[in-house]
Amino acid sequence: MEKIVQLLESKGIRPTAIRLIAYKRLAELDVAISLGNLEKDFMVSERSTLFRTMKTFVDKGVVHQIEDGTGVIKYALCEENCECEVGNDLHLHFHCNNCNETVCLTEHKIPHIHLPEGYKTEDINMVVKGVCDKCSSNLD
């Protein structure tokens, strides 16, 4: 837990109990999670508290939001030293149409996209949809 405290403090985040528990839960997952599903993991926390925690984590670069086309924003931990900025550290996401899980494909970076003059990029989100490795092996 001390390592999580140090990481949060290094990002300028006060390590409250809910923030520590939320970070720990995100670190245990290998998939992105919605606020609703994260809320199910916490018996006594209010949705607004979790929402504010996720917003703080996003604002401080601890987690990133993923819009995978399902209409529900999902959250995943950023990689170490991630800046989560356009042109830096942006990666593909994969959404499985079978199990409905979304995963970060951090080793597959989004290339820089040259826009016409006058256009300004604020965010890039690339989601590949299909069948994940777990589901495809179960289909054989």
Automatic annotation (TrEMBL):
Pfam families: FUR. It comes from the Bacteria. This is Transcriptional repressor. InterPro entries: FUR, WH-like_DNA-bd_sf, WH_DNA-bd_sf.
